[in-house]
Task: structure prediction
Amino acid sequence: MLIVMDKNATREQIDNTVRAIKAMKLTPVPVPGSQRTAIGIIGNTGPLDRASFLVLDGVKEAIPVSKPYKLVSREVKPENTIISVGNATIGDGNITVIAGPCAVESREQCLAIARAVKNAGATCFRGGAFKPRTSPYSFQGLGEKGLEILTAVRQETGLAIVTEAIDHSNLELVEDVADIIQIGARNMQNFSLLKRAGRSSKPILLKRGMSATVDELLMAAEYIMANGNHRIILCERGVRTFADHTRNTLDLSAVPAVKSVSHLPIIVDPSHAAGRRDQVIPLSRGSVAVGADGLLVEVHNDPQHALSDGPQSLYPEQFDELMKSVAAVAASTGAAG
Ligand code: PEP
Ligand code: MN
Result:
């Protein structure tokens, strides 16, 4: 249920409504909005009676929410969520590009890549200090040393830092350093990690699981929001299908599908979708054309020797070309590139 307060409702009427909802053993979640105050109700196990809310002073409407997710839905918040970090603003109609290596390997590697992607127009730097690898024998990331390198990258370049937390203990560490905390595809339904991310003060970049439906992605975001963190950026990164000409199949239809039902921004990761660098630019162009709010792109200064995901990492010159190409598409669709 969504309670919409009258636009002239007083602070006292809003507080009384919150108290009345709590007295019914339900959880009120105020949803920030520019025009009016709305209060989402969570915690009910069955349908609620609208009449019990409509009698409260200052309540204009009580709208049953038809979707299993509530706080992330457009029914609850019609206007787009806009998230600002550092010099980046995500969800305001411009294309935000987050770029960097798959893994933090060294200070020199990160600084060289960070300078290159910044010059090309990226506003956020990505790089994993904790890596979720398919094989236990593959490079697992530099851990805390990697986080120190990321801090240096922010200091030297001013780029906002996006890095992944793969469990509770490293979320605590990542939270101190990251401007945006990434939750990877493999953890999209790690519900205890999602709840912890919901208690973080940092925005969360939530990647779609490789076999997750759009509704499951939105329910995962709902876990984060229900725990108090409203700053969530969704990310389509390809799903697993029978197709074997790419690492995953990029589901571009997820972008308009998410936008029609949710107010959250959604970006696309063409690198993990493709698994090979020759497809990254065309898929980026397609992503912008279907309305993505941004891109997450892997770039490496020496991809032949990268410790992870070298074959899908762009050379810095290719990243330059990507930025120009994407700006042209954005201009033609009306998005600001
Ligand atoms: C990554 O961004 O490097 C990564 C591991 O991505 P995903 O979780 O989408 O596989
Ligand atoms: Mn990677």
